[in-house]
Amino acid sequence: MHLEGLTEKLDTTAVWQQQLSPGEQQRLAFARVFLHAPEVVLLDEATSALDPANETRLYALLDEKLPDALVISIAHRDALEAFHSRSITLAR
To answer: Which residue intervals define the domain ABC transporter in the entry (predicted)?
Structure first.
């Protein structure tokens, strides 16, 4: 998850939105998903602050670690379609 620097801060109380970059916040959110292993995962622009390589890596991990989970994503990057069996495009 590339969050190794946070392990010594696990018991720290802080305003994390000010301490972590948007990309770190998104990677931390994915770590929570993997920890809780829900049956349904709703991702709304969950990787918008990440570069395409890290985005692909996290979605591949979702497939690997939670193969039976229902994953619903809202995203603007077409590359994420590869990780879903169905796609809906909304347009005006």
So the answer is: 15-48
